[in-house]
Design a protein that fits this description.
Layout (H helix, E strand, L loop, with lengths): L1 H19 L2 E11 L2 E2 L5 E4 L2 E18 L11 E5 L7 E6 L5 E6 L3 H5 L22 E10 L5 E9 L9 E6 L6 E7 L1 H9 L4 E2 L4 H12 L1 E4 L1
Parallel strand pairs: 1-11, 9-12
Antiparallel strand pairs: 1-2, 1-6, 3-4, 4-5, 4-7, 4-8, 7-10, 8-9, 11-13
Length: about 230
């Protein structure tokens, strides 16, 4: 009888540990051009020309695993993706509860803009902050296009804005089941490059309508593979 009770206790502890164990999902981010992962200072074919990216940075925040059947409390977190620093392109999110959805905000929202502590990824020394009026630069894309006629075109896109009419951050929600441990988040830039070259929108250094439009393009070009 004592042995049976001991077995029941052991099984109970084992099941409890399974139910309440911290579940982890590893996120890997990458920037792409025509579905090819981008490395800095490397030329990629573009039409009859070529393009070389020199800076690719992006804020990602409020990353959380949710159960859509229950109420949840928003989690405040933030990272600065920087292709130059491989370690920043990985992030692990954790949950003690069951989940069926992954939420990610691309950019820094109005709440965090208004009460940022300016440390770690939000430190202005990262060169991703304008002023208290304009807030953070959500996405920074810099590149050089080498034309077939040997001319150069420089793309300098510092895209930000946290209040209407120039809000550029957005949240995406993805269905995600328990047991999915590795998720790839791909940020495709081909539509943006096409737009800025065709419309001669080569330089953006403050919140404006073009930045809002480009962020809309970006929103539709971010995919995850589970």
């Amino acid at each position: 009888m004592v042995r049976l009770r001991l077995i029941v206790v052991v099984i109970f502890i084992f099941v409890s540990n399974l139910l309440f164990a911290q579940q982890k999902v590893n996120l890997s981010f990458d920037f792409r051009l025509n579905d090819v992962s981008i490395a800095l200072k490397k030329k990629y074919g573009w039409m009859q020309d070529s393009i070389e990216f020199t800076t690719l940075k992006m804020y990602v925040s409020n990353i959380q695993l949710n159960d859509t059947t229950k109420k949840h409390k928003d989690i405040e977190n933030y990272i600065l993706l920087n292709v130059e620093d491989v370690a920043t392109m990985q992030y692990t999110c954790e949950s003690k509860n069951r989940f069926n959805q992954l939420n990610i905000t691309f950019g820094i929202d109005s709440t965090l803009n208004s009460r940022a502590k300016f440390i770690d990824a939000l430190d202005p020394l990262n060169n991703m902050y304008w002023t208290w009026q304009s807030g953070f630069i959500n996405y920074k894309i810099e590149a050089t296009v080498y034309k077939e006629n040997e001319n150069l075109e420089n793309i300098v896109l510092h895209l930000g804005g946290y209040a209407k009419p120039f809000k550029t951050y957005f949240t995406k929600k993805y269905a995600l089941n328990n047991g999915k441990n590795n998720v790839q988040v791909s940020i495709e830039l081909s539509k943006i490059v096409e737009f800025v070259l065709q419309n001669n929108v080569l330089k953006i250094m403050s919140p404006n309508a073009s930045a809002v439009y480009i962020s809309t393009l970006l929103q539709h070009e971010i995919k995850i593979s589970k």
